[in-house]
Design a protein that fits this description.
The protein is of the alpha/beta class and about 325 residues long. It is built from 10 helices and 7 strands.
């Protein structure tokens, strides 16, 4: 006796179906009729590995942007490359578009945090409604051909290892400077984990983890603010070694000024989250005390009535 296939075994109507009769050539078959009434909107979407969109913030990066876009397009799992041109005065947007990227442009310079928010909104509009939202791979427009080194960040997020994967570049093993040390201490205080490069701008983040950090902190405190907000919301953050070689900055007057501004932004981002955490704890403590007061107030009248009743009976 022939074995029934799983499809036949799971369909009780197949055993009781009438014998097949010859139909006229011009008569449509039942299969064709069912196909005409088929509604694709009710089909379940097959589960697959979530896609990743690369978000590149660029300002006057005509020298490197084409090589950066081509390198990012070669990263497995990346199906969209979006370049946010932050009011460049050169032909950055034309070169990025010719290299294969989708380009949006600010009419005036708004900074990295605003550019990331703009790019995240554009990517969200391009996500398919019945699929998991794309993760975002945040990159610098000046990486050039070294952007391919960010490839290990993608599987770390898409395979569920973490929600934010921070790139460990080859510039320095541990980030020096007062800004990095302050960010490192803040993250360690929040999670008992001390990152080596807490201010790394190259990172891959899931859409829910990014939305937990919205609105992003402006200036140089964006990265540490994103990390602290994600940790406070219960998301996992880790560092992944990447083969990315970046040039070390020379300690001239301009870079020293930028370091001072970055330290200010980092400390403001950390301080604001400390105040926010203290306010949340205060609200929780006050709410708990009020709930206990309301409970005791609801029980006390019943006890008085019972005492009075006992006195009347006596």
């Amino acid at each position: 006796m022939a074995k029934r296939t799983p499809k036949e075994a799971s369909s009780p109507a197949s055993a009781a179906s009438p014998p097949v009769t010859d139909a006229p050539a011009d008569a449509p078959s039942d299969k064709r009729k069912r196909r005409g009434r088929h509604n694709k909107a009710t089909d379940p979407v097959p589960t697959a590995t979530p896609a990743v969109a690369a978000l590149i913030v660029a300002h006057n990066q005509a020298r490197y942007i084409a090589a950066t876009v081509r390198s990012v397009l070669a990263i497995p799992g990346v199906d969209l490359v979006l370049v946010v041109d932050d009011a460049s005065s050169d032909n950055t947007q034309e070169l990025a578009r010719k290299a294969g990227a989708v380009v949006v442009r600010h009419s005036h310079e708004r900074g990295r945090a605003a550019s990331v928010e703009t790019g995240a909104s554009v990517i969200a509009m391009r996500d398919e409604p019945h699929r998991e939202p794309r993760a975002l791979l945040l990159l610098e427009g000046s990486l050039g051909s070294f952007a391919i080194g960010a490839a290990p960040l993608v599987p770390a997020v898409t395979e569920g290892v973490c929600d934010i994967a921070i790139a460990l570049t080859d510039a320095v093993p541990v980030s020096p400077g007062a800004s990095a040390q302050a960010a490192r201490k803040a993250v360690a205080r929040a999670s008992n984990w001390s990152p080596r490069q807490p201010l790394s701008r190259i990172r891959c983040v899931t859409r829910p983890a990014l939305e937990a950090a919205m609105p992003l902190w402006r200036g140089g405190g964006m990265e540490v603010g994103m990390t602290l907000d994600a940790l406070a919301a219960g998301y996992l953050v880790t560092e992944v070694e990447c083969d990315i070689r970046q040039k070390a900055h020379t300690p001239d007057e301009r870079s020293l000024g930028k370091r001072g501004s970055q330290y200010r932004d980092v400390m403001l981002a950390i301080g604001s989250r400390r105040v926010r955490g203290a306010a949340a704890q205060t609200r929780h403590a006050v709410g708990a005390r009020l709930s206990r007061t309301d409970t005791s107030a609801a029980i006390t009248p019943d006890g008085d009535d019972a005492t009075k009743a006992d006195g009347d009976d006596a």
